Here is the input.
Amino acid sequence: MPENLLEEIAGQIETLKSRFHSQLKLVKDLGQLKELEASVLSKKGTIAQLNRHLGALDPEERRTAGALINQARTELQAEFEQSLSQLMKKWREEELAVEKIDLSEIISDSNFFAGRMHLITRTRQELEDVFVGMGFTVEEGPEVESDWYNFEALNIPPYHPARAGQDSFYLRYREPESMLLRTHTSPVQIRVMQSRQPPIYAVMPGRVFRRDTADARHTPAFHQIEGLVVDKGITFGHLAGTIETFTQAIFGPNIVSRLRPAFFPFTEPSAEFEITCTICEGGGCRTCSQTGWIELGGCGMVDPNVFNAVGLDPEEWSGFAFGFGIDRLAQMRHSISDMRVLLDNDVRFLRQF
Ligand code: PHE
Here is the structure.
């Protein structure tokens, strides 16, 4: 009954296929999938076993049956490969989902605010960085000074208007008007020159105090940074070059500096230094009174009397000094119309920097 055998083989193939399909659907992991592959598709698997019947068929039918078996094997093999790649993909996705790490920062309290440095502190640090980059050291001095450091040693004689009680906050300590809150950072020059031998390349930032009524451009407590160079053969050219270099480092290449003759008791010759108006960049506007320039600070060559006060020989040493307001610089740089906001501690303002 070879006819029947051929039909039976074809029937077995169909059974085998449908069992394979339903088993494939139940597979849970790679191990089970491999097991199924081995039991059906391997050399000893159920498909190969069908070949055993071939011997009982005549050549014509054997070819037909062989072709049927091979076709079934190819089909099931292809289905197996497809399931394998689908399962691998699914498992990989599950694995990735489990291993996923959320690196985005979550601030659970929406009112949370970490705070930051005050604009003045930041500006001061930026200035320090620029000068340290030019080879300067950073020095500090006390906010309470004696008359000698704040005035006398700086060649400001007793009758000089800068000493007038209306400018200075004097302390009720020792002799009347002998101690005060420093009115500028220049007394730190004296302390640095007393504390070590030249060459000196130093900047001295700090808080200073004047009896000014607060307005858009003044506050009674503000900040200055002082510069002092003492070495051999220092010229006015070095001073101008230093000011130009730091101006460009802080404000960028569009802002340049210039010097105008002025007077300070502790420098001779003295100058005021101005920078291109940061509002109009030199074109002329209300802020710079149409001049295109804004005054930033004072400077000059160290007066021989100052060298004498600290015991340095003015024949041997020469130097320059400069000083300017850090608050004023920040005000210009950020176009802050009223200086008083720097002291208000209103976080809506402070958060912008
Ligand atoms: N001390 C001066 C002031 O407060 C500024 C200055 C510093 C001028 C150094 C010349 C040299 O106005």
Observations:
- Residues 184, 186, 226, 264, 267, 297-300, 321-323 surround phenylalanine (CB under 6 Å).
- The chain has a mean pLDDT of 91.
- The beta strands are 137-138, 144-146, 179-181, 200-209, 221-231, 257-264, 267-276, 293-302, 318-325.
- The longest helix spans residues 59-99.
